[in-house]
Design brief:
2 domains; 11 strands; 13 helices; 49% helix; D-Maltodextrin-Binding Protein, domain 2; 6-stranded mixed β-sheet; TRAP_DctP_sf
């Protein structure tokens, strides 16, 4: 009798523990990306504050990167400490702590969004592996900002005209690209750029077309060069593995499907449109986001496309490969390298 009673007590304790674990996963604290941009306003915020509570019965609280004011990978460390459960952040912000992640978004790697999607799909297993290894988190989504193009005070007819100029880079791999053309990559926060451009601290700067328009970069620039020098500035959605493992398999499957259908896929579709809209708004075309600017859109030459590919292969890829273990290079070659027809050494 005592033996049966002990078994019953143990079983009951396990059931209670399981109930507590599931309940603990039922209130999520989310940090979204930048709250001034479309990705947060139209997708991340409504997804976590409306879709997840309605579809999964889970309570949520949502804030943003700007509101928590944590730089780089600090927001991931806070997640590991249990302060947050879900974080969306720009992948460039955390590559210093996990260089394998930088392989996703190298300068001029994907000149159009269709190829960018193939690159992401190929590299997802590697991202997931190193996010877990380096931060103890799981990948939920990858969404792009509009193409990261060049805003310039001076007219350029090719990449060669950047020689000797100071250009704000959107990440260290972008700085490698800029340095390779004879310019100097400068580190500045996004908000510092307009004043720096106005004062001549920098001659140009790289960011997304619509982001630059919204932030007033068009008022301190005269030209835009639509080569994605800074890639696509992907935002990764992640969840703490501790939180993830408290969900049932059914909850995990449902959340992943909801993210794909209601956040990731529509966000990719909007990025394609916003890349074009940003350039149109800056160049004086039809602008659904406000008053159009009067910047000149410089022609992108086939020669510069070919040169950007050469710089990627001869300068950027070797610099990145030198920061990661050989097995990461092998994984890049077997995934992204196969998609784009390049091999890192």
């Amino acid at each position: 009798m005592k033996h049966k009673l002990m078994i019953a007590v143990v079983v009951a304790a396990m059931l209670v523990a399981g109930t507590v674990a599931v309940a603990a996963a039922q209130e999520l604290r989310i940090v979204g990306s930048w709250n001034s941009l479309t990705l947060f306003k139209n997708f991340e915020q409504p997804f976590w504050s409306e879709v997840v509570p309605e579809e999964m019965g889970i309570k949520t609280s949502v804030t943003s990167l700007g509101q928590v004011n944590l730089r780089g990978a600090a927001v991931f460390r806070q997640m590991d400490m249990g302060v947050f459960d879900v974080v969306h952040t720009v992948i460039d912000y955390v590559v210093e702590d996990s260089p394998a992640l930088a392989g996703l978004d190298l300068p001029a790697l994907a000149l159009d969004l269709e190829l960018a999607r193939k690159v992401v799909d190929a590299y997802i297993p590697v991202l997931d592996e190193y996010l877990a290894k380096d931060f103890g988190i799981k990948l939920l989504s990858v969404t792009p900002y509009p193409a990261q193009i060049l805003f310039s005070r001076d007219r350029i007819s090719s990449l060669s005209d950047l020689r000797g100029k100071k250009i704000r880079a959107s990440g260290w791999t972008t700085a490698e690209f800029i340095n390779a053309v004879g310019a100097t990559g400068v580190t500045l926060s996004f908000s510092e750029v307009p004043q720096a451009m106005q004062r001549g601290v920098v001659d140009g700067a790289v960011t997304g077309s619509l982001s630059g328009y919204s932030a007033g970069w068009g008022e301190v620039s005269n030209y835009i060069y639509p080569l994605p020098i800074g890639g696509w500035d992907y935002v990764i959605g992640t969840i703490s593995l501790k939180t993830w493992e408290r969900f049932t398999p059914e909850q995990q499957t449902k959340l992943q499907q909801l993210i794909k259908d209601r956040l990731e896929t529509p966000a990719w579709e909007v990025t394609a449109r916003e890349t074009v809209e940003g350039i149109e708004c800056l160049g004086g075309g039809e602008c659904p986001h406000g008053r159009p600017g009067n910047l000149e859109i410089l022609a992108l030459s086939e020669a510069d496309k070919a040169r950007s590919n050469q710089i990627l292969l001869e300068n950027v890829l070797p610099a990145w490969a030198g920061k990661v273990p050989p097995e990461v290079v092998q994984k890049w070659n077997a995934t992204i390298g196969e998609v784009v027809g390049l091999q890192a050494k």
